[in-house]
Amino acid sequence: MIVRIAELEIDPDRIDAYTALLAEEIEASVRLEPGVLFLFAVSVKENRNAVRVIEGYADQAAYEAHLATAHFLKYKTQTADMVTSLRLIETDPIAIEAKNPISS
Prior knowledge:
The chain is of the alpha+beta class. Helices cover 35% and strands 36% of the residues. The chain has helices at 15-32, 60-67, 70-79; strands at residues 2-10, 36-44, 47-57, 83-90. Strands 2-3-1-4 form a four-stranded antiparallel β-sheet. The longest helix has 18 residues, at 15-32. The model has no long low-confidence stretch (mean pLDDT 95).
């Protein structure tokens, strides 16, 4: 399993448009890609422009396939000018458990 954390900073004037595109991309990825195990997007409470995405993929091939999908490429293209910084953090999973997600 591959787990990454993406730390993004979003242009404050574009945060609503960004979060709508991110939600659309996450929904499509989880629904359409068997190798995408989970995608969780949150914003930092004191700074909603600080977005964090926790990503889980079955393996490296699933991650690479995800990057080539039409829905991911649409998200990257349409949000490119909204993202002011992006840092990807590689992790070593220790323990991962989840109940059914709560809809927002």
